């Protein structure tokens, strides 16, 4: 079920990595207008049409809904507090972005499923957020750019008391 | 906006009448189960009590019935000045008789006088005269019920105490304070973000709690009277699990400012932060012992969560719970002799109490999603959050021997995180 998504994710991740390695700042590439094809000079043809570039290569990759940075949730197995391999590309991408944009900060919000006590779940959610924080730290992200906090079981994304809802709520979110 | 809700006190099982009484209020309390022995007591209507905003004798009767310790009989209307025919009440099976009167004083207060009589010995057990402003008529009734409970059961009554809890209705969270019988609800805090872990200060004027209003858990202390709020802990990471020292000077908290959650103490104004635990796991839910010398807390240092005890200044911790792989939310009884906690067994989260002198464990609930236990200040009852009757978020009360049970619900939304307040004069 998830594997085609992951493949797509890895591809976009690879593209992003390539983009980041270029010396050109991504923001600078946001060409606002492209006048090629229009008549030059002050007296533009009133019937000419200029093109605005809002494609992926033209925006902050953080705002690209198709990009890997749009992936901001790390899911955990039951009673597990370590980041699974399938989420490494997501963390790699966020680490690259944060390393390239030192003024950007994130809050990592840990969550748990509804079972058990509120305070203990708050500590378990913290453990998930902390796992993500440590992984990003190992990828070079500065401590001043990150805060790991927990919502415990207080802000469930999925309501309901079944395995699907519980799995959705065993999660850490990256919030910019 | 104030929704009219109902208190519905249903006396079942051995409670003699099975009668249903309804008064307007905001929480619904149902009784299920009574004490091993019930003291038969006749409670008369107080002379002229109709002049006060509430019927004092009805408040007393409801308190005594809810406690599960009394079999309450009606006794017409009798003033504290009336001549008592002890033989008559003895023959009707009452071991004790309550009579009283209400008078309006020149300054607008109501003077409530009451006498508690022993029908077997034909003597007076107690008498009180309490003058209070009209809005405190209910408190006066609870104080008289406290006195009756103390004289006949031998333990101070907790009817005049209050509870704090959190409700969630739609997207609004509220920290509310109500009398122990669910009446007199006041909203202390409204928020669109979660509120958890309310904890009363020992003097009953402040409540510490965790609020998520700043998009992360932060510990506040709120003065209930002045509404003044103090940020006690807002460090990087999560701040949670406040618990007061018995003298009110310190608050134990759980902070995740250096990685995982650890136990600290701060002064009640947020100064003088001290770290007490130092593990690479989870240490949380600190609770001061009754004498203030120890702190009980939850730790996963052995794998799953278990309850430990350490000196209140930190240091070596000793494991307290050994049965089961998941024991959380320690609460120490006011006499320091027993420990209430939530244990997971076969997927069920249930309230247990451990006798610390002999390590005897007793399961106190039949429900399966129990949370957040809290002792009454007289140590006779434990209130906790649970789900029952298909309702998310109800509160339940159980006597520490497991015999007397009550369920507290609201008509709208759910109710959780109860914390029973201290004795107040």
List the helices and strands and how they pair.
The complex is a heterodimer of chains A (176) and B (425).
Chain A: H1 3-21, E1 73-75, H2 88-100, E2 106-111, H3 118-138, E3 146-152, H4 163-169, E4 171-175
Parallel strand pairs in A: 2-3
Antiparallel strand pairs in A: 1-4, 2-4
Helix pairs in contact in A: 1-2, 2-3
Chain B: E1 5-10, E2 20-25, E3 28-32, E4 39-45, H1 56-67, E5 70-77, H2 86-91, E6 96-104, E7 110-118, E8 123-132, H3 137-153, E9 162-169, E10 172-179, E11 186-191, E12 195-200, E13 206-211, E14 218-223, E15 229-233, E16 239-244, E17 250-255, E18 262-267, E19 274-275, E20 283-288, E21 294-299, E22 306-311, E23 318-319, E24 327-332, E25 338-345, E26 348-355, E27 360-363, E28 371-375, E29 381-388, E30 391-399, E31 405-409, E32 414-420
Parallel strand pairs in B: 4-5, 4-6
Antiparallel strand pairs in B: 1-2, 3-31, 6-7, 7-8, 9-10, 9-32, 10-11, 12-13, 13-14, 14-15, 16-17, 17-18, 18-19, 20-21, 21-22, 22-23, 24-25, 25-26, 26-27, 28-29, 29-30, 30-31
